[in-house]
Amino acid sequence: MKRIAMLCASILLLVSSTLIGQIPNKISYQGLLTNTALKPLADGDYNIEFSIYTDQNGSQRLWAEKQVLAVQNGVFNAVLGDVTPVNLKFDQRYWLGIKVENEAEMTPRIPMVSVPYSFYAGLSEGLADNATGAVLSLNGLEGDIEVEGDNGVTVSKSGNKLLISNKVSAIETIISSKAQLTIKMNGTEVDVNIAPKSITEEEISSVNWESITNKPTLYQPGGTAGGDLVGDYPNPTLSDKGATTGQVLKWNGTQWVAEDDMVGSFEFTVNSPLSGDGTKLNPLSMSKSSVNTDGYLTSNDWTKFDNKLDKVSTDAIILGDGTLTNPLSMAKANNTNSGYLDSEDWKRFDNKIDNVVASGAIIGKGTTANPIRMNKATNSVDGYLSFTDWNTFNNKLTSVKSTLPITGDGSTTNPLTMNKASSTSDGYLTASDWTKFNAPNSVSVNSPLVGDGSVGNPITLGKADAVTNGFLSSADWNTFNNKLGILVSNTPLSGNGTTASPLKMSQANATSNGYLSSGDWNIFNNKLTTVGVNAPMSGSGTSLDPLSLARANSTTDGYLGSTDWIKFDNKLDVVATTAPMTGDGTTASPLTMAQANATTNGYLSSSDWVKFSSAAVVSVSAPISGDGTSGNPIIMAAANTTQDGFLKSSDWNIFNNKLGLVSVNGPLVGDGTTSSPITLGKADITTNGFLSSTDWNTFNNKLTTVSANAPMTGNGTSGNPLVLAQAN
Description:
Elements: E1 4-13, E2 27-35, E3 44-53, E4 61-71, E5 75-80, E6 95-100, E7 110-111, E8 153-158, E9 161-166, E10 181-186, E11 189-194, H1 201-205, E12 229-230, E13 237-238, E14 247-251, E15 256-260, E16 274-275, E17 285-286, H2 299-306, E18 318-319, E19 329-330, H3 343-350, E20 362-363, E21 373-374, H4 387-394, E22 406-407, E23 417-418, H5 431-438, E24 449-450, E25 460-461, H6 474-481, E26 493-494, E27 504-505, H7 518-525, E28 537-538, E29 548-549, H8 562-569, E30 581-582, E31 592-593, H9 606-613, E32 624-625, E33 635-636, H10 649-657, E34 668-669, E35 679-680, H11 693-700, E36 712-713, E37 723-724
Antiparallel strand pairs: 1-2, 2-5, 3-4, 3-6, 6-7, 8-9, 10-11, 12-13, 14-15, 16-17, 18-19, 20-21, 22-23, 24-25, 26-27, 28-29, 30-31, 32-33, 34-35, 36-37
């Protein structure tokens, strides 16, 4: 609320009328508008309403008009009657009331002094509108009227003329002997003003101030201003101190210096996230900040954000500190650098054997927990050759001489080979022939084979799926074969899925396809998919089934018709009230509200209204600034690294997205703090961890598939394990 005071005002009659001239019903008025701190209002145009009353405090208003007046340095000039003529007799005492913008009328009202009462003399100039050569009435009197003069005024008759004369000499010229007044005459108008610096201190000191009524409680100083002011009183100005356009003066602790204006124009407004105008009905307030709302930071959020990490400490292969300017990163692993596994290496490693399905003497899955291994071979156990046995066997023949049906010399390049025996060729006995010749009761098979080879339970191999080993069906073969080597995408997707060109999608908006952001998701999610209604409402809100509500009657719920409204409105119900109102509105229990005080809700008394209405501007402390006036609204800047302030929603998201405490699963250890950085150890046979460049080379040099010669079969994959049948 603006607090405006009238520091001083003067009322001057614009014109002095000649006896034959028309007296204009106008009054010149000049005033100074200040706030309660006695600072002139900002320059600009203001809506000002003038009213004339019959007494100082009464409500009978005789005349009023509104004008838009220019105010400069708080001073304004008005001509009362420019809009609505002042058609008053001025035959009694009047008071002038002034109201600026939407403020209440200023108090006390200003008494109008003698000059405007010259309007009353204008009444003697005219006769009734229907006069025809004779005086029919005079001031409402008719018949034999006797005109008398008073205070030096004489009335005499000369023929058909009535001569009214004044023995006191009339003012013909207005002069200022001490040059204390500036007088400008323009025809019938006289403009009288006090000349600058014309009233001396001696003249002021000789005045009996006790005899002066309606004197102000504060007085304008005179002379040349000093200190931080320049110019002469009563209107000195603040020294600019070198300020340029858009800057204001600020106290740096020792002197005023020019700095950028952080407030703006003199309007009683607040900036988001503040709302309200500082009044009791609309107090200043600030909502709680959230993921999409600027506002104040609650103590709970402060504790939560304060417990989050400013930055993350790392070591080994993890780089960065987790901030926006230095995010956590990890280099790509290769044969010389430890790091993360990229998609290309992943594909290459993924094409390698995940685990080895072994049979016979080979056991294990090839995992850390169940590595591929082989027991030491003995005369009763298939297995690996120990160095002792190696020496024993090494002392045996280096090459084997063989005769048909065995061929080869037992070397790697010429392994011992025996063809399958048939009816015409010597050779080894195949399992099927062995089974046929041995006529066993049943055949033992390894997973994923099932069955015993009998007619009732033939050996079968099921179809492979995500959890079952088996054969690859033609449909799955086509599925796997049709997978993309390089991904080709259509808008709104871009990229081919490689490291150099990852798949990307922009955020969707009104003109562009893309992904749905969380903010838009909330907007769309909050929209109604269907409209649910309860009786008496019906319909689903669609064009085919619009929402409808039947008219209410004695048996049907619905809307209230206008005729029923009139009928019900004329009825008297008991009035229900809530504190501070009491009573039910009846004669026996009228509505009552107590006067409000410090401990009781209630109505605002006139004395309290004056006290609250006269309240000074709002005092604030950093980081809030301003005094709550239109020229200096209460604001709070956004907080940053060097300035206290409110928490913006964008910063709230940044802080809220920070880690409160980093939880990790093995093989990661640490909580991301300086004393306990997140660490990933090197993987080995017993420890999960990052892939070192040395192990990368080791794993990269491993076989993607295993080649085997008969009687070994398979390629070492889960779908085709290495198998060595038992000789017989």
